[in-house]
Amino acid sequence: MKKFAVIGLGRFGASVAKTLSEKGQEVIAVDKNEEFVHDVMDVVTKAVCLDATDEKSMKAIGIQNVDVAICGIGMNIEASILVTLLLQEMGVPTIICKAVTEFHKKVLKKIGAHKVVLPERDMGIRVANSLLTRDANVLEHIELPGDASILEILPSADFIGKTLREIDLRAQYGVNIIAIKKIKKDMETGEILESQAININPLAEDIVSSDDVLIVFGEKNKIDKLKNKG
């Protein structure tokens, strides 16, 4: 089990803290807003109301001992930078930060953040990709750094009942099925209710069923051809 600290409990930080806790991880959640702290205190290992730019207070709750610190402070750029510097000086092995602009991201990387995310931008890209696809079977399209993408897609009728070898997306589109996720659907509406299991090592003889989601990896232009095949 890893030890995590989540600093800044707005929508992004609270979501990260709750998800990590639900996955059985040890989480220290920090914010100077009492209401935000109260919202997660029954879920995380420890929830503390304090000013995260105060080094003494941060050391008193053991932030220097965590394996990963996530700084979810966004709009207060000065506080975001100060907290990132403090985490770096405290020797936290992995520092992940939220940024609100590309310039903010660049600054955080310069001062020691190991990874910086722009959640609003990334979500906007995902929504735009979902709107532009012509295939209703596409659930998710994630563009990765460089020339690669991951696609989550429901199998079309001509895939169901066939093996991965028979479908052979690599030969048809130059992409690879890297995992298969089992889902539960509403019997009346067909709406996806939940994911039940994931096979991260699919074999050529695995048979595709109607309750599968295919997770496909490949170059962006080839993923686009598959996404818009309908």
TrEMBL record:
One of its GO terms (biological process) is potassium ion transport. InterPro entries: NAD(P)-bd_dom_sf, RCK_C, RCK_C_sf, RCK_N, Trk_Ktr_HKT_K-transport. Pfam families: TrkA_C (PF02080), TrkA_N (PF02254). Residues 1-118 form the RCK N-terminal domain. One of its GO terms (molecular function) is monoatomic cation transmembrane transporter activity. Residues 136-230 form the RCK C-terminal domain. PANTHER family: KTR SYSTEM POTASSIUM UPTAKE PROTEIN C (PTHR43833:SF7), POTASSIUM CHANNEL PROTEIN 2-RELATED-RELATED (PTHR43833). This is TrkA-N domain-containing protein. It comes from Candidatus Omnitrophus magneticus.
